[in-house]
Amino acid sequence: MRVRQAVTEDAERVAEIHVRSWQRAYHGLLPQPLLDGLRPAQRVPQWQRLIQQADWPRRATLVAEDEGDVVGFTGLCPTRDDDDDPEQVGEVAAIYALPAVWGRGIGRGLMAESMRTLREAGFSSAGLWVLEGNARAIRFYERMGWQQDGAVKDAVIGGLEVRELRYRCVFR
């Protein structure tokens, strides 16, 4: 597995991974009609824009390749949280891998490189948000050294009220 900066040509594959992982990871947590209605083509413009707007290393999309195929990605940026300083705190805004490669170390590789990149950008810590009840993701983050910091936010996704929990990682 190799992790590298995303290029614009990766946007379609990133959008596909985003949708396929949502459909699997959020089954039972988000409304099924919402998940069934997701289409990668709807997310391609967003990912093209985000990849083009990269400001390495503070704002970037990383992709994981396995045998030359992009199978996962992560989106990094300064924190978007009002209670944190975007000069000091980075954010893992997204981290997803194709369900077919779950359990093969792709996520660990992506997260390790994401944390290295955020440290390189000068951030002293980073945060991420996880959907309450997403036990698989929570176990993964905690194994990677992230800890819940007590912050929560409520949102409505597909007409369903959900709660997200913030996790934090302090760089040493």
TrEMBL record:
<feature type="domain" description="N-acetyltransferase">
    <location>
        <begin position="1"/>
        <end position="172"/>
    </location>
</feature>
<dbReference type="InterPro" id="IPR000182">
    <property type="entry name" value="GNAT_dom"/>
</dbReference>
<keyword id="KW-0012">Acyltransferase</keyword>
<dbReference type="Pfam" id="PF00583">
    <property type="entry name" value="Acetyltransf_1"/>
</dbReference>
<dbReference type="GO" id="GO:0016746">
    <property type="term" value="F:acyltransferase activity"/>
</dbReference>
<keyword id="KW-0808">Transferase</keyword>
<dbReference type="InterPro" id="IPR016181">
    <property type="entry name" value="Acyl_CoA_acyltransferase"/>
</dbReference>
<dbReference type="InterPro" id="IPR050832">
    <property type="entry name" value="Bact_Acetyltransf"/>
</dbReference>
<protein>
    <submittedName>
        <fullName>GNAT family N-acetyltransferase</fullName>
        <ecNumber>2.3.-.-</ecNumber>
    </submittedName>
</protein>
